[in-house]
Amino acid sequence: MSPISIFFNRFHHHRRCCNLSPYLRKYISTCSQSEPIEVNLSHPIYMIWGSNTGVGKTLVSTGLANSVLSIPNSNHFNYIKPVQTGFPTDSDSRFVYNKVLEIFTQKKLLINLFAENHALRGSVSVAKEFFGFEIENCDGGLRELCWNEEKRIGGDVQEGRDFTSKLVCKMLYGWKEAISPHLAAERENAFVEDSLLLESLQKCLMYGVGDEVGVDKDLWTIIETAGGVASPGPSGTLQCDLYRPFRLPVVLVGDGRLGGISGTISAYESLKLRGYDIVAVILEDNGLINEVPLITYLQNRVPVLVLPSVPQDESNNLIEWFDESQDVFHSLKERMLDAHQQRVCRLQEMPKKARDIFWWPFTQHNLVPEETVTVIDSRLGENFAVHKIRKCEYITQQFDACASWWTQGPDATLQIELAREMGYATARYGHVMFPENAYEPALRCAELLLEGVGRGWASRTFFSDNGSTAIEIALKMAFRKFSYDHGVLKFPDENAVDKSFEFKVLALSGSYHGDTLGAMEVQAPSSYTGFLQQPWYRGRGLFLDPPTIFISSGCWDISLPKGLQSIKLKLEDTTFSSQSELFSESRESSDLAQSYSTYISQQLLLFSESEFSHLGALIIEPVIHAAGGMHMVDPLFQRLLVKECRSRKIPVIFDEVFTGFWRLGVESAAELLGCLPDIACFGKLMSGGVIPLAATLATESVFDAFKGDTKHMALLHGHSYSAHAMGCTAATKAIQWFKDPVRNRNINAEEKKLRELWDAKLVHEISSHPAVERVVALGTLIAIELCTEGNDTGYGSVYATSLVRKLREDGVYMRPLGNVVYLMCGPCTSPNVCSQLLRKLHREIDEFSRIKAKRLRSCSVELAHKTDLPTASVTTIALLLNG
Amino acid sequence: MSPISIFFNRFHHHRRCCNLSPYLRKYISTCSQSEPIEVNLSHPIYMIWGSNTGVGKTLVSTGLANSVLSIPNSNHFNYIKPVQTGFPTDSDSRFVYNKVLEIFTQKKLLINLFAENHALRGSVSVAKEFFGFEIENCDGGLRELCWNEEKRIGGDVQEGRDFTSKLVCKMLYGWKEAISPHLAAERENAFVEDSLLLESLQKCLMYGVGDEVGVDKDLWTIIETAGGVASPGPSGTLQCDLYRPFRLPVVLVGDGRLGGISGTISAYESLKLRGYDIVAVILEDNGLINEVPLITYLQNRVPVLVLPSVPQDESNNLIEWFDESQDVFHSLKERMLDAHQQRVCRLQEMPKKARDIFWWPFTQHNLVPEETVTVIDSRLGENFAVHKIRKCEYITQQFDACASWWTQGPDATLQIELAREMGYATARYGHVMFPENAYEPALRCAELLLEGVGRGWASRTFFSDNGSTAIEIALKMAFRKFSYDHGVLKFPDENAVDKSFEFKVLALSGSYHGDTLGAMEVQAPSSYTGFLQQPWYRGRGLFLDPPTIFISSGCWDISLPKGLQSIKLKLEDTTFSSQSELFSESRESSDLAQSYSTYISQQLLLFSESEFSHLGALIIEPVIHAAGGMHMVDPLFQRLLVKECRSRKIPVIFDEVFTGFWRLGVESAAELLGCLPDIACFGKLMSGGVIPLAATLATESVFDAFKGDTKHMALLHGHSYSAHAMGCTAATKAIQWFKDPVRNRNINAEEKKLRELWDAKLVHEISSHPAVERVVALGTLIAIELCTEGNDTGYGSVYATSLVRKLREDGVYMRPLGNVVYLMCGPCTSPNVCSQLLRKLHREIDEFSRIKAKRLRSCSVELAHKTDLPTASVTTIALLLNG
Questions:
Q1: How far is Cα A299 from Cα A282, in angstroms, rounded to an integer?
Q2: What PROSITE patterns does the entry give (chains A, B) (predicted)?
């Protein structure tokens, strides 16, 4: 009897949903809630991929099942086939189930085996055939089949007794036609969304793990895909993309046929291009010794195993073949086990090794105990996959809420596109040197920069490696331009410069421009600039304290610095109900604008009277002082600063390294300010957040100040990887992607800005919370300053530590700036995700403040006891002191 | 009569070699000499790839040929099948030839057509069948078949008259068995090396181009590959790797069968991972509408065309099918033509656009006319593929002799490996932030650094983006360490530091450490540091003039700076016959060593007596001052400097950004010096030359100076992409590759150094040339200072410009450092290639000096005429003046 007919016999005995055993119910769900993807590491979980259809994935699954279960032990083998077409005629799950039973029966193994086979859901066509009557369409055309069969073989078995070994086979979704799943889904009008499929799979992965069945050392789970690696799943998403969130290690079943070498290598590469780890390639011997070139090509990377030729005779039950293949499957299993154990061991040792040999930037190593080191196994889109140990070890998701230090933009789709682009750029260019040369990625990138963030003013692109170098270059440009405009240099004789001539910059306190000496010199003294950090720092600037803006109780408010506090303010000048009011040009005619201008002029006059040096440049971070604590500077103030400098022919530099490329909801923050620079620096998000690249854009008149007859007049600055092809390729892709409404649904194409990502109501609530001092929400950023106790504020503060740890437990990876916490998403992140995050943050702040309050109370009680004062009074005093 | 039998009929009429027509002889060669790969851009040349075997590549080639030739015009279509197995039973070349003739005959097109079909070489088995008798094995088992057939159809044709249209089909190499070429080659014992195959192909590409047949506007060339994209060629090299040097644009024939979506996408990706441009995907309709997901997936990247289903009936002559497919092939042809023209237009406009919008580093734009801009289409291994216009436009190779500013290491194989690694790293990690985190690439890279260049001293890795930032970090580390050791700081109170306390560094004149302000401060005044470049530069160092070493007339010689010139020298102390003598530790006991030590001590004493500042660090580039003009510093002097500083507890920094990772023949130049630093900086080659990454390594005691209870004590320096996964992945791959004797044949595993790459005899000759001032040859570097006329030396010199231009014409891309020219290869470059380069350089220097001498002579004659002195005397005076 052929397997198919056996199957149909059993089929008529299927159980209905109502008769489901309780454990079956557990992994059949309507999957309404979104759970984070988690992968348990306590046992091997592998995905079997094929380099083509018909290469024998199911034979490999069966061979593995047999190999695991044949060893006398309490083994448990889960086989999962998430997507099956041609069902029920074809059922890989059933094949594994039947074949293992057949092997066990024929070989008379002295092992007790309990085997089950489940078919969970199918299209209406499948269900019709299953139940034998018309079925209403439901759940997007998919119907629960809730079918299972089971069999016990082996020794004397009693009801309820634990079986030695267990095989559980499951098909999650079945379609009737034996075609590609996306096509079957369409033809049978039975769709399953990717998220639903992943959730169902996630649930199955949990089955058999942990408390439920006890810690089972020899638990194995194998998931078998459908067709080739890049065959579409039911939704049309390629399977290699679909299953990427799990990033399960891979066994690739290669192709032993003519043309199979190519197919196997290409499949291998498609998997690599999605970040999968391939642990072994296994293929059937078709007499073409395909394994030889495969071994040569894949040497040092992955072992290649060869299975004996599979008998083509349909009547052959393959028992003999499985017997012959036993050693190969055993090797494969051992290899898989080794790889799994190696992976786990490495993950375990990483925190210690990292602490031993890394020197982390901006990190006091003494404050980072081993258990707080985050081991990042991978990332996909906005999410880290991190290694965690609770009851057992697993990989779980954390939203990267600091956008990996403000660099991140890609969603999962863009990341995979960038992967291919990075591969292509390396293969096409590697790196080629820039000066006096032209190549497509650099040229295209420069074009896009000038058409985009440089539109209307910039005409030259100077590439470098990071924000810091971009700033150093900008300063050199500005100083030359100033010298040129003000006749400081009698060109080209630089010796003619008065030796006592000195440049300073005009800048704002609290701004930050990078860590190299030149970039540090243009920031006001701070924790970063002391003798301990940079003994050479002098602070070569006139640093003005700017007015800042923040949301408090849902309303935008201005806070004025000391020098401006004497101004009489009109309420309408200082409070705003919306962002657009705040950025409105009409503010220029306000009394406040007048006061700002006067203040700036006075400061410039004072400087010129008291100092011998000249202000050779204005440098500002438009709108947001990022590293300085996510403060929003009043845009009106910055606009007027630019105006005053322009009228004095002081070159204007915008440091848009943080603010550029949609960080603040517009491509360039200059759009928010409503005025243009002479020079601007970009980095971080520019390259799509995968690779360091920076650019300093300049006007043609800045460029002209470097023209001359000799090389000495040129800007003699550059880095080895200037305009490197890979960075420029990434930037080219990312710049276009972010602003494309088809790719990025957050783009409002007409207004050329991002839609509001942070739910206004939630922002209002958070800004009204008693534990919150101020909030800034703009574009992809929401920053929250926490009210602290006493002087525990600023960069060195560890005030927020416990809050941050709680959030990390809750799936949000955050890193505070002292007592300021922030969420930062990418330009493409869905507002739903943002709201989820915001709700989590709100909840945790609430909890956090309750704990702090409780501590204050208990402290007050203690103090009251000591001082014999009423507790309430002590609390009031404590609060006032800390206020 | 089936095509096969027609073939055999004709086969017996084949001509022997001796009867070859002259034009046939031209493209049959023994291919003994190595020609650079060139691709003509005057007409479309495409490569047809298949996503599997049997997907219809030859049908597509035929359809294209038909489409091109069917238009009444003087068209010329070349079809090339470089590798054919199953020959002569299968012959794709013959299929195209026959089928086009058949279509033309049947359709009675009013176009004259002259068609030829050639079979050039075959295995002995093939030849045996061809010639009908036993053939001796020759040429590695391959035999010239020199077989051709031809046919004329159309109007009234007279002998010798030019035919309107022409089809030339060629098979280059044939094997008898219908299996993968590598296997056929092995079984038939008939091998062809990759280089030979490429050369044969190159010759065929030249056929029909240019003068020979006149400029033919409608010339097309199509090359059809064998099997799938990653099917091995005859040598076993994957075809996608084999043909990469041409990087011809691609038409990918997709797979319309079940599983074909996956195969097509994976094939597409394998081609992208080799840097190919895919212009169109075309596939047969097999009723599975595979094109829909393909179009969705490939949208915005490449169009997908669908051919009608091919009749499976073997008796069908497909004429009807070709007729039905006509429009599709027409669209394909148009798309190919468009893509070709777009490519050429873009290449043409690039120099102007580049000059308009780039701001090149270290470049006086006024000195770069449009025609000197190098347009780089791609690179492979050490070679650029550049766009050139001579008689016609083409892409040609140039050896990248400045190693793209000293970054390059990969050969072609490593580059393609890195491409896959870069794709994988992007897909797995993108970028993840570093502080307090651990992830595999960063950890592995740090481990490899500490085991390799940091072995024996370093225990901490601080990552940054480029050499400049690595130096700024090193300085911060050194100053803190000094403060800690010398009690400058009353930890942790930095306010306790005496305000007048100032740090300087001890450094050597002529060394260069980067372009950011901090890095600039530690170099002596130079063209880079004046007011024109960096108004903030002060030069915070005690800069000693070092003794330098160079080869002159084949012998290593020392040149002492002023301060040391009073020393009495022994000849054995100052001349060396070999490198090993030069670096020998025994020199430490020489009189010269004594003099060096005394001199250093005196200088340090003088400094401490006359300055208020402290020397907080020693910073040196070990052995070679790179940007300073490729000067070799006497290693003995540097070793003694380190010794003197160590005894004074002055932290020692090695700037190995240039010298690290085999640049000087050893992994770390510290090995040459024979002493260790406290801090060392690495970059450039570290990441395999594809991506910016730098590292500052430090000892644990340096690290300890930053430990404390607060964040303020930590090293507050970092860049957004610190330890980015992609850079660390590239570095991990490259570091291991360079030192692996299996991968890198230049490695002498025992001695842990590179073998000698520069032919000693040639170096001797060059160093003896009258036009050459001095030579430095070490590791991957050979630098040659040219004798100049008058004061035209140093960085600003344009003395070498004409030499450099000539070399670029000669296939060597060079960029001089003033009057110093250099060749720089990678750690894996074959010594043969190095010798070829050196010979070219020698020849060009010779030519260059002859021209200069001629100019001098004519100038002398003129002067003699004016002054009435003998010409010889004038020449002598002129030479003395210029000397």
A1: 14
A2: AA_TRANSFER_CLASS_3 (PS00600)
